[in-house]
């Protein structure tokens, strides 16, 4: 059952706030859509903050060719939504998230068949919601046709599954309405967390120290000691980008320095990056303002969470050439949006 324009607007706008409140996304990195007919769907725009989004800013997109009318650009992932609506006629609502545990699991780049784990990672209710597996699409650069096609292939191969992971990226969940799509997202995060713990052979830890902030010649600086940033800082080594939002917002890698007061080492580690790990002392995140520094810290923690798993299992990070493309596109896009007073929506 497709939605009327008014129904779709209400469901999308309330779901945007729900995404932010539940932590299924970092900032507004993610997107939501609702089917209007066999030919059209309504989707969140590119470059607009979720908290202030209005019905007039949502965009109607043609399923057949991804075209749209008006001056407001739809989400750059509109192609992925269109491909899924083509493939799943029973699906009327789609949510694309950057949720932490599922994103970390995506680094494996493989499907997770739930039956292989018995009752250890998923309840019968969660299996009923998710289907027999958590499929994973092959890697594709953000917002590209390749990513959209890869997600569609994974969904086609797994017709009974309500979710698809995207390697190094995030997840997409589908349902007949927003409640089904969100139930799938929550179930995915719970199950992904249990699989993560089994793969790492340790419980997920969550205690964190209070951040410290100050202004400097580098900009707004935030000293953070969140759990997995601390875990990586104890290793005293460079941590590569295992998630492409990390590559976007901070760069291909995050170096670790031995002394927070070593100005030369700090400056070198920060070159073309927005974060520096400090041995046994967390990380310093640097940005032009508080909001962006907090975003760097949030994404760095998520990347360190993924790195903790990847390093234990010798999983590869985002390819350097791909990471650099993601970074360059982000810098150009972010710069334009800041000038226009907007924000990014992947």
Protein topology:
Elements: H1 5-22, E1 31-35, E2 40-43, E3 59-62, H2 78-87, E4 93-97, H3 100-105, E5 112-113, H4 124-130, E6 133-134, E7 136-137, H5 145-157, E8 163-166, E9 170-175, H6 178-200, E10 209-216, E11 219-225, H7 227-235, E12 239-240, H8 244-249, E13 253-254, E14 256-257, H9 263-269, E15 275-278, E16 283-287, H10 290-313, H11 320-340
Parallel strand pairs: 7-8, 14-15
Antiparallel strand pairs: 1-2, 1-4, 2-3, 4-9, 5-6, 8-9, 10-11, 11-16, 12-13, 15-16
Helix pairs in contact: 2-5, 7-10
* Overall helicity: 40-55%
CATH topology term of the largest domain: L-fuculose-1-phosphate Aldolase
Total discrete domains: 2
The description of the largest β-sheet is: 7 strands, mixed
Uncertain segments: none
How many β strands by DSSP?
Answer: 16
| Rg, nearest Å | 20 Å
CATH class membership of the largest domain: Alpha Beta
Distance between the termini: 27 Å
**What percentage of amino acids are in beta strands?**
15-25%
Q: Order of strands in the sheet with the most strands?
A: 3-2-1-4-9-8-7
Question: What does the oligomeric state look like here?
Answer: single chain
């Amino acid at each position: 059952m497709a939605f009327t324009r008014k129904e779709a607007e209400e469901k999308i706008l309330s779901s945007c706030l729900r995404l932010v409140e539940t932590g299924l996304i970092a900032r507004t990195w993610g997107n939501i859509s609702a089917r209007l007919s066999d030919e059209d769907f309504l989707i969140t725009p590119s470059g607009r903050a979720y908290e202030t989004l209005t019905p007039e800013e949502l965009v109607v997109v043609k399923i057949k060719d991804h075209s749209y009318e008006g001056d407001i650009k739809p989400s750059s992932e509109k192609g992925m939504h269109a491909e899924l609506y083509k493939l799943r006629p029973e699906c009327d609502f789609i949510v694309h998230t950057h949720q932490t545990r599922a994103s970390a699991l995506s680094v494996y780049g493989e499907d997770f068949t739930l039956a292989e784990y018995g009752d250890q990672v998923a309840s019968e209710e969660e299996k009923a919601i998710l289907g027999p597996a958590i499929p994973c699409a092959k890697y594709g650069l953000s917002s590209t046709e390749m990513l959209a096609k890869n997600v569609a292939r994974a969904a086609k191969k797994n017709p009974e599954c309500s979710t698809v992971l995207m390697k190094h990226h995030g997840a997409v969940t589908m349902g007949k309405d927003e409640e089904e799509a969100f139930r799938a997202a929550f179930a995915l995060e719970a199950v992904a967390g249990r699989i993560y713990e089994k793969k790492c052979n340790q419980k997920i830890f969550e205690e964190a120290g209070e951040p410290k902030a100050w202004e400097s010649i580098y900009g707004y600086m935030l000293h953070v000691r969140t759990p997995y940033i601390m875990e990586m800082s104890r290793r005293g080594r460079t941590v590569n980008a295992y998630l492409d939002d990390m590559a976007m917002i901070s760069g291909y890698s995050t170096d670790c320095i031995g002394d927070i007061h070593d100005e030369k080492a700090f400056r070198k580690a920060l070159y073309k990056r927005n974060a520096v790990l400090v041995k046994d002392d967390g990380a310093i995140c640097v940005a032009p303002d508080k909001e962006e520094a907090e975003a760097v810290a949030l994404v760095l923690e998520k990347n360190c969470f993924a790195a903790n798993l990847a390093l234990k299992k010798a999983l590869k990070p985002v390819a350097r050439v791909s990471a650099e493309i993601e970074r360059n596109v982000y810098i150009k896009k972010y710069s334009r949006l800041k000038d226009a007073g907007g924000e990014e929506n992947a």
